[in-house]
Amino acid sequence: MYAIVEMAGQQFKVAKDQKVYVHRLQTEEGKKVTFDKVLLLDDGSNVTIGAPAIEGAAVEAKVVKHLKGDKVIVFKKKRRKGYRKKNGHRQYLTEIVVEGIVAKGAKKAAPAKAKAEKQPTAKKETAKAEAPKAKATPKKEAKPKVAEDLGKKTVAELKEMAKAKEISGYSSMKKAELIEALSK
Question: What are the boundaries of each domain within the chain?
Answer without folding.
Answer: 2-103, 136-184
